C-alpha cells in the first residue's frame, strides 16, 4: 500500500530559511549563501520522507516566498512596474514582486483560502505576455533525482492559478481571467515536456479552487484545460490534488471526468462528506489519494478510526488503487515534535507535527497492506484515551459560564453615533485623527531582554525596567511625531496570540513550533487543549504604565477571541464556537479591568475574523453569527465613553462588510493600501458605515517609505466615499517587522499628510 505527502514545511525545523532570507535581504549574505541553505533544507526533507517509507514524495513545494508567486514567475507574468526585461527571473525581480522596493510597491498579499498563510496575488490582463521564465519545478525535480529520490513535481494548476488572480490595475474589473487559459497552457505544456524528458513518472496539479462554490463556466474551465493538456500529459501519471473542504457533487463529477487524469487527491478531514461521493461513484481504474492525516492541526491521528475509513474506501476503489495521504500540505503545521523539550509528556503524547504525520501516513499504509505495527497503534490508542479522560481538559465553571451566554446578543446599550459623540467630548480628537495599529519595531536588544528573562538570566525587576524604558521611548517618539492616539508598542510581546495564550488556562506552548505565515514571517501558534479562562489580568499593568507617561489617549491592546482561535491549533474534541465563547469571556474580563484602570481607548484586534470564514457560502451565516457575537461579548459591558477599536488585515473583507458593521465597534482599522483600495469599492457601492474607520494608508509589509503626497492622495480617495468625521489615518498593520529607520519617516509623512488634509478641509469650509 502506497503513501503520499501533499507538501511539507519550508522554513526548516529551527527557521533556517527565515534567517537566511533576512540575512540576504539585509545584504549580509550572498545569493549563493541563500541557495545553499535552501538546497540543504530540500535535501533533508526529501531524504527524511524517503527514509520514512513514503512512496510519492513531492518536489517544487519548497519556495523562497510563496508557491503562487513561483507560478507567476514560471509563467513570466511580471507586472511591468518591476522593469523585468525577460529571461530567467532572478531574486531581484522575484523579491521586488513579493516585498516591493525603493521605487515601487509590492503585489497584493491575501490569505490562502481559510488559513493563516498568505499568497501573492497575480495581477493579470489581456496584454500580459506570458513566457516560460522560471525553470524551478524542473530544476528541483532533477536536484532530488540526483540525490536518489524520485519525486512528484507539484504545480499550481492552471485553472486555480487564474481563479486566484485579479485584474491588474487599469484592467476592467469585469475582465474574465479564465479567458487567459489559452495563453498560459502552452507554458504548462513546456514545463510538462521538460519534466517528462527529465524522467518524471508522476505530476501533481494542485487545484484547490475546486472546493469553492463554482459556477458551470468555472467548472467547464477545468474540463477544457485538462482536455487541452491531455496529449502533452500522455505517458505521465497525473494527480489532481484538492484540499480544505468538501467537493460539491458538481465539482466531484467535473474532477472525476477530467481527461488524462490518473488520480484524485481529496481532503477527507475537512471534507468528510466527500467520502459519500466516493462511495456512490468512483471511476474504475483510477487512484484515490485519501487525505486522512490532518495537515492543518497538530493532534495525533486517531489511527484506528482512520484505518477503518481507509478499509471502507479500499472496498470501493480497490486495494492497489488506494494511496494514504495528508489532507493538504503540511506547510500549515509545525515541523517536528522532537524539537519540543518543554512540553510535558502527557500533552506531547497527544500531538503530531509534520515529521510525525509523515510517520502516521506510512504506518496507516503499512497497516492496510497487512503489516500493522501493533506497538505503534497501541501507543496511539492509549494517547487518544488519555486525552479524552484527562482532568486538565475540562473546567466545569468555564463550561457553565459559556453555556449561560445563550439567549443574549450582547450588544452595547447605546448606538454607535451616540457613543462616538460621548467619546469625542472626552477624547477631544482632531479631524482625521492619527494612530498606529499597536506594535513598534522589535529590536535585537528588545528580543535579547525577553529571551534572557524567559531563560532566568535577568531578574524580573531588570526585565520590567527594560520594558518600561522601551515603552517610554515609543511614547516619546509618538509625541514627537504628533500622533493623536498612542500605543505602548507591545515590547513585552513576541507574538500577539502567544502572549495572551501564555496567560490563559487551557493553552500549551512550543519552543520550535513555527509555522510560515508569509515570506520569512513565522508564527508559533499556541495549542488550545482544554477549557479556557483568565486566572489574572494580562495587560493592565503595561497599559496603565504607558498611560502614565502621556496625557494623550493610550490604547489598551488586546487580541480578540476569534483571532486567538483562528491563529491557534484548536482542540478538535468540541465545536470551534464553544472554544471561541470561552476565550471571549476571558477577554471580556480583561477589557473591563482596563476600563477600571482608566484606559479610555481599547483595541481588540480581530485580524483573523475573515480568515475563518468557511469556504462554502452555505456555511457563512452560522460562522459570522458566532464570530461576531464572540467579539460583542468582549466589550458589551463598557461605558459609552470607552472607545472600542478593532483591527483587521490582509483578507478580502468586502463579502463580510455587513458582519463587520454588526460587530458594533466604535472604530475599525483595516488593511487597504496593498489591495489597491479594494475595500473602498464597498462604500462606493453604497454601503453606509457610521462608525469610525481607518483604512490603512500605507503598506507596512514592505520596506518602502511612502511620501506625504502619496499618503495624502490615498486619504483623498477615502474622503471621496467616507464622511470626514469618521475617517482615521493609520498604517495597514502593526510595525513590529519594520526597522525604526523605515518607521520614523513613514509615520512622519503620515502625520504630515493628515495635517495637510486638515488644513485643506478647514479652508474649504
From TrEMBL:
InterPro entries: Cbl-indep_Met_Synth_N, Cobalamin-indep_Met_synthase, Met_Synth_C/arc, UROD/MetE-like_sf. It is an enzyme of class 2 (transferase). It comes from the Eukaryota. It catalyses: 5-methyltetrahydropteroyltri-L-glutamate + L-homocysteine = tetrahydropteroyltri-L-glutamate + L-methionine. Residues 3-316 form the Cobalamin-independent methionine synthase MetE N-terminal domain. L-methionine binds at residues 437-439, 490, 605. Zn(2+) 2 binds at residues 658, 662. CDD domains: CIMS_C_terminal_like, CIMS_N_terminal_like. The keyword DNA damage does not apply. Pfam families: Meth_synt_1, Meth_synt_2. Residues 432-755 form the Cobalamin-independent methionine synthase MetE C-terminal/archaeal domain. Pathway: Amino-acid biosynthesis; L-methionine biosynthesis via de novo pathway; L-methionine from L-homocysteine (MetE route): step 1/1. Its EC number is 2.1.1.14. Catalyzes the transfer of a methyl group from 5-methyltetrahydrofolate to homocysteine resulting in methionine formation. PANTHER family: 5-METHYLTETRAHYDROPTEROYLTRIGLUTAMATE--HOMOCYSTEINE METHYLTRANSFERASE (PTHR30519). This is 5-methyltetrahydropteroyltriglutamate--homocysteine S-methyltransferase. It comes from Gossypium stocksii.
Amino acid at each position: 500500500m502506497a503513501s503520499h505527502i501533499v507538501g511539507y514545511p519550508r522554513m526548516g525545523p529551527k527557521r533556517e530559511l527565515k534567517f537566511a532570507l533576512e540575512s540576504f535581504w539585509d545584504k549580509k549574505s550572498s545569493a549563493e549563501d541563500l541557495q545553499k541553505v535552501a538546497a540543504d533544507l530540500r535535501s533533508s526533507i526529501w531524504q527524511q520522507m524517503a527514509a520514512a517509507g513514503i512512496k510519492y514524495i513531492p518536489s517544487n513545494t519548497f519556495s523562497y516566498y510563496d508557491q503562487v508567486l513561483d507560478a507567476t514567475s514560471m509563467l513570466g507574468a511580471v507586472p511591468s512596474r518591476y522593469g523585468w526585461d525577460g529571461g530567467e527571473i532572478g531574486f531581484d525581480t522575484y523579491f521586488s514582486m513579493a516585498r516591493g522596493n525603493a521605487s515601487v510597491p509590492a503585489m497584493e498579499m491575501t490569505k490562502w483560502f481559510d488559513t493563516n498563510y498568505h499568497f501573492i496575488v497575480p495581477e493579470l490582463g489581456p496584454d500580459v505576455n506570458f513566457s516560460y521564465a522560471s525553470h524551478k519545478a524542473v530544476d528541483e525535480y532533477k536536484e532530488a533525482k540526483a540525490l536518489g529520490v524520485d519525486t512528484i513535481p507539484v504545480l499550481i494548476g492552471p485553472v486555480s492559478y487564474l481563479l486566484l488572480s485579479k485584474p491588474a490595475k487599469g484592467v476592467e474589473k469585469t475582465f474574465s481571467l479564465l479567458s487567459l487559459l489559452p495563453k498560459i497552457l502552452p507554458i504548462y505544456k513546456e514545463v510538462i515536456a521538460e519534466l517528462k524528458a527529465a524522467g518524471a513518472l508522476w505530476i501533481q496539479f494542485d487545484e484547490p479552487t475546486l472546493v469553492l462554490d463554482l459556477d458551470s463556466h468555472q467548472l467547464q474551465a477545468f474540463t477544457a484545460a485538462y482536455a487541452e493538456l491531455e496529449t502533452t500529459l500522455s505517458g505521465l501519471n497525473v494527480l489532481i490534488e484538492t484540499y480544505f473542504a468538501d467537493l460539491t457533487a458538481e465539482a466531484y463529477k467535473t474532477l472525476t471526468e477530467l481527461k488524462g487524469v490518473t488520480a484524485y487527491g481529496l481532503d477527507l478531514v475537512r471534507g468528510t462528506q466527500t467520502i459519500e461521493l466516493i462511495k456512490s461513484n468512483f471511476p474504475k481504474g483510477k487512484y484515490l489519494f485519501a487525505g486522512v492525516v490532518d495537515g492543518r492541526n497538530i493532534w495525533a491521528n486517531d489511527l484506528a478510526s482512520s484505518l477503518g475509513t481507509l478499509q471502507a474506501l479500499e472496498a470501493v476503489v480497490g486495494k492497489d488503487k488506494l494511496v494514504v495521504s495528508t489532507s493538504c500540505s503540511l506547510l500549515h503545521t509545525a515541523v517536528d515534535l522532537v524539537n519540543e523539550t518543554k512540553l510535558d509528556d502527557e500533552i506531547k503524547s497527544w500531538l503530531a507535527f509534520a515529521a510525525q504525520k509523515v510517520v502516521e501516513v506510512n504506518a496507516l499504509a503499512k497497516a492496510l497492506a497487512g503489516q500493522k505495527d501493533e506497538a505503534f497503534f497501541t501507543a496511539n490508542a492509549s494517547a487518544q484515551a488519555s486525552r479524552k479522560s484527562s482532568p486538565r481538559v475540562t473546567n466545569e465553571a468555564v463550561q457553565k459560564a459559556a453555556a449561560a451566554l445563550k439567549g443574549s446578543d450582547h450588544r452595547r446599550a447605546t448606538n454607535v453615533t451616540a457613543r462616538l459623540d460621548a467619546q469625542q467630548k472626552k477624547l477631544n480628537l482632531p479631524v482625521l485623527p492619527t494612530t498606529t495599529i499597536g506594535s513598534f519595531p522589535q529590536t535585537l536588544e528588545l528580543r535579547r531582554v525577553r529571551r534572557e528573562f524567559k531563560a532566568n538570566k535577568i531578574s524580573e525587576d531588570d526585565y520590567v525596567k527594560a520594558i518600561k524604558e522601551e515603552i517610554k521611548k515609543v511614547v516619546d517618539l509618538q509625541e514627537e511625531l504628533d500622533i493623536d492616539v498612542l500605543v505602548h508598542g507591545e515590547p513585552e510581546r513576541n507574538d500577539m496570540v502567544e502572549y495572551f495564550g501564555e496567560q490563559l488556562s487551557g493553552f500549551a506552548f512550543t519552543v520550535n513550533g513555527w509555522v510560515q505565515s508569509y515570506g520569512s514571517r513565522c508564527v508559533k501558534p499556541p495549542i488550545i487543549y482544554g477549557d479556557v479562562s483568565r486566572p489574572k489580568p494580562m495587560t493592565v499593568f503595561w497599559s496603565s504604565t504607558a498611560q502614565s507617561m502621556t496625557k494623550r489617549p493610550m490604547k489598551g491592546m488586546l487580541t480578540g477571541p476569534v483571532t486567538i482561535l483562528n491563529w491557534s491549533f484548536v482542540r478538535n474534541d468540541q465545536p470551534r464556537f464553544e472554544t471561541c465563547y470561552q476565550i471571549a469571556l476571558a477577554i471580556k474580563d480583561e477589557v473591563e479591568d482596563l476600563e477600571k484602570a482608566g484606559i479610555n481607548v481599547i483595541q481588540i484586534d480581530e485580524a483573523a475574523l475573515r480568515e475563518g470564514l468557511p469556504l462554502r457560502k452555505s456555511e457563512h451565516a452560522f460562522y459570522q453569527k458566532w464570530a461576531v457575537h464572540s467579539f460583542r461579548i468582549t466589550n458589551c459591558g463598557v461605558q459609552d465613553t470607552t472607545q472600542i477599536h478593532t483591527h483587521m488585515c490582509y483578507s478580502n473583507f468586502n463579502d463580510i462588510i455587513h458582519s463587520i458593521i454588526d460587530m458594533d465597534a466604535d472604530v475599525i482599522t483595516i488593511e487597504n493600501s496593498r489591495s489597491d483600495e479594494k475595500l473602498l469599492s464597498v462604500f462606493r457601492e453604497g454601503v453606509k458605515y457610521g462608525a469610525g474607520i481607518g483604512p490603512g494608508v500605507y503598506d507596512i509589509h514592505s520596506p518602502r517609505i511612502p511620501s506625504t503626497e502619496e499618503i495624502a492622495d490615498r486619504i483623498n480617495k477615502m474622503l471621496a466615499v467616507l464622511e470626514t468625521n469618521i475617517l482615521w489615518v493609520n498604517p495597514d498593520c502593526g510595525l513590529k517587522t519594520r526597522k525604526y529607520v523605515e518607521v520614523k519617516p513613514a509615520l512622519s509623512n503620515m502625520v504630515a499628510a493628515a495635517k495637510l488634509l486638515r488644513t485643506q478641509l478647514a479652508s474649504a469650509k
